[in-house]
Amino acid sequence: MELLAQQLVNGLFIGCVYGLFAVGYTLVFGVLDLLNLAHAAVFTIGGLVGLWLVDTGGLPIWAAFPLAVLFCGVLGLLLDRVAFAPLRQRADSNFSGLISSIAMAIIFESAALGLFGARTVRFPEQTVTVHYWNVAGVFITSLQVEIVAISILLMFALTRFLAKSRVGKAIRAVAENDRTARLLGIHVDGIIASTFFISSALGEAAGVLFGLYFNALSPDMGHSIELKGLAVIILGGMGSIPGAIIGGLAFGLSEVLTVALTGTSNLRDAVAFTVLFVVLILRPSGIFGRKKLREA
Amino acid sequence: MDALHQFFAIYGSLVNFIGINSLLALSLYLTLAAGQLSLGSAAFAGIGAYTAGILTMQLGAPYLLSLAAGALLAALVGLVIGLPVLRLRGVFLAIATLSFGEVVRIAVLNINITGGAEGLVGIPNVTTTWGIYLSLAVIGYSIARLRGSRIGWCFECIREDETAAAAMGINTTYYKVLSFVLGAAVAGFAGGLYAHLTYIITPGEFGFSIAVDLLIYNIVGGIRVWYGPVLGAVLLTSLPEILRGIGVTAGPIRMAVNGLILLLVILFLPNGLVSIFERRGRRNPKGPSDAALEEA
Amino acid sequence: MLLQVKNVTRTFGGVKALDGVSLSVAEGEVHGLIGPNGAGKTTLLNVLSGIIAPSAGEVYLDAAPVHALPVHKLAAKGIARTFQNIRLFPALSCLGNVMAGQHLVAPRPYLPRLFHLPSARRQEREHRLEAMACLARVGLEAKAHFSAKALSYGERRRLEIARALASRPRLLLLDEPVAGMRKQGVDRIGRLIESLAGEGMTILLIEHNMSFVMGLSANITVLNFGRTLLTGTPDQVRRHPDVIEAYLGTGGHHA
């Protein structure tokens, strides 16, 4: 029983990080019908930049974190300017955008490799002080709590932002129908740029949190989360923020439970992808997603 | 003659890999020609490779029979998977085939007969360069002759506009599945060739990144005509060697060059590198090049 | 009767887009289908071309039931259509578009092509000639090698008709073939439809342009709120008070 509870806690925790990552993914998809495969690369760079700021820059984590988030937000703007904006007029913009994002992902990853080397690196020892608590036989670390808190805070802030702020509402309008939004006077290109900023910022946050928790960062850490992020947003429904959050949690839980039940981590991913495959066949729109993919 | 021998001594394996990659690129091309973005070619190649390898090694089957069996099994799996999956469009289809690929990879990783993570070791090294290029010539020619045939026209129509294609009497499901199965068969065959080229195959060689590579060969080369993917495969497979020749040995830089080429192509030459040649060769420089304009 | 629509109903989640619609089109007849926006014309067209199935009722082509057939099988029965939004193949030339439309009549087998057999070339020449004839039929033979993208709006509409003709259909469904066109283009397509009808083609014509429909149709069916308001000759329809009400009542009036 305790073991189960422990697994649940672990699963919820990793689910939060997945959810945070997925939210950035799904935000871009919701607004542009575009699958941005460079998101995982931003996740990686985010983690590495955060590490660099702490390690080489000597900054405390609570200063490095927002700085790194900002940096990746700008990276997102760059991504949009270079790789996506020029393609928006094309009839097959979803597809060419996808290819473009693959290209940028490769470029980003090579930059990470070049700048940080291929080895796995860790945050220095004193970055975060960790306390352990034993709650009814379940071990929880303060780091876990902090990460969950930050994730929840960010996701909550995003939801409020989208619901209440002018920019947020504009983003939702563009997601609905960009032509109408333009007619209403919304500066669509600027909104799209903002979306990329936010999405990349979130991806970065997930990267730093992920790196802090597993205490291992490498240029290819994006690979493991890339496909999982895809699975999460399909499950939750592409374009749906609540879907990404719930999907992330569900995914984290299922991962952890699969390992616990089968006793090995070999099949963990297989279960995830089989579920993904089945969801796609039966209900491609996922739990909360829109029914139709906007066609050119 | 001596120079040729020397060339082969140094570059023999590169030449072989160029041939195999060309075949694999063509396998993806078959599905792209019908407008289906399938990222499962690598998995089908893996199925073909393992089937052929196991048959030769464990059952002592003749080489050609193993190759045929590998292609056939890949085609069968393609048929079973294709029917449900091809109802999806665009990005969803890509993700579905991707997750299928991952499931295959993980399955192979965990089954005993395939040797698990250590891979299948000790496959007889019987693939020859002539064999590879003969296959490439035959398969390339067969694919080239599709253009102007009923199958070729149907693929093209489905790719341009599925709704209109159906309204013209084309059984879109049949042709989409056909493109998928043919692609799987070619990939399986190429996989079998590959397995008998090196002594060992491992699951990692048929994963997501290979699938992405194949997509890149197709995009860079151009998918409007059959030799585009081959061109892409030749160029990008030899690129690391060329770069090494001019003194660029760092891994990250080579990676960045790949990404940069892809980005430049998608931004400025969306129809791939072959569109450079096409522009010169046509009578009407502004007009399209379709099968209707050819005499034969 | 070539086409018989019997009591076709189609609901979408509680809303009846079509409610017991019936009409008949005789062989060689030009039959108009009109109605205010939202009357169900597009839905009916989609039922007739197989994109959606009726919730109730039947459709017969040449006395054979076709309402349950998928799109490509309906096309094989001899129904060809054009689209309101024009669905040409943009990457192909005009000739290419028409040749693509020959799917049902051109077997184009693969093996003879593989072996470069002369029979393949011979057949291809014949198909090409027939395709050029379709282009000539709509007056586009000069643009055969132009990209479909390079055509003007009116030319694109005509190209779609040429492509539909390539399959040698028995029934031609034209979905707003002159929408958004000026008088010259409208007249040109009007003359085209007249000459096609003169050769015995059966045509179901959906259009908002009243004088256009009235001038070409032998009979007209008026839809309103998913129901058949009236079927009659252009004169009968023009004078019927319900029809006038349906149009003026909803605030619409057409040239």
Features:
heterotrimer; B: 296 residues; mainly alpha; two-stranded antiparallel ribbon; 71% helix; 1% strand; C: Rossmann fold; 2 domains; 6-stranded mixed sheet; 4-stranded antiparallel sheet; 10 helices; 10 strands
Strand order of the largest sheet of chain A: 1-2
Unreliable runs of chain B: none
Distance between the termini of chain B: 38 Å
Write down the overall mean pLDDT of chain B: 87
Strand proportion of chain A, as a percent range, falls in under 5%
| Shape call of chain B | globular
Largest interface: A-B, 41 and 41 residues
- Based on DSSP secondary structure assignment, what is the total number of beta strands of chain A? 2
What count of helical segments of chain A does DSSP give?
Answer: 11
Largest sheet of chain B: 2 strands, antiparallel
Series of H and E elements of chain A: HHHHEEHHHHHHH
Spatial shape of chain A: globular
Question: Explain this structure to me?
Answer:
The complex is a heterotrimer of chains A (296), B (296) and C (255). Chain A has 296 residues and is mainly alpha-helical. Chain A has helices spanning 2-32, 39-55, 61-84, 93-116, 142-164, 166-176, 178-183, 188-214, 221-236, 241-262, 268-282; strands spanning 132-135, 138-141. Chain A has a domain at 16-221. Chain A has a two-stranded antiparallel ribbon. The longest helix of chain A has 31 residues, at 2-32. In chain B, α1 (2-33) packs antiparallel against α8 (172-195), α2 (41-59) runs antiparallel to α3 and α6 (150-160) packs across α8. With 296 residues, chain B is mainly α. A two-stranded antiparallel sheet of chain B has the order 1-2. Chain C is an alpha/beta fold and 255 residues long. Chain C is 38% helix and 23% strand. Chain C is built from ten helices and ten strands. In chain C, the strands form two sheets. In chain C, strands 6-7-8-3-9-10 form a six-stranded mixed sheet, with helices on both faces. A four-stranded antiparallel sheet of chain C has the order 2-1-4-5, covered by helices on one side. Chain A binds chain B through residues 35, 82-83, 86-87, 90, 94-96, 98-100, 102-107, 109-111, 113-114, 118, 223, 227, 230-231, 234, 266-267, 269-270, 273-274, 276-277, 280-281, 284, 293, and chain B through 37, 84-85, 87-92, 94-96, 98-100, 102-103, 106-107, 109-110, 208-209, 212, 215-216, 219, 250-253, 255-256, 258-260, 262-263, 266-267, 270.
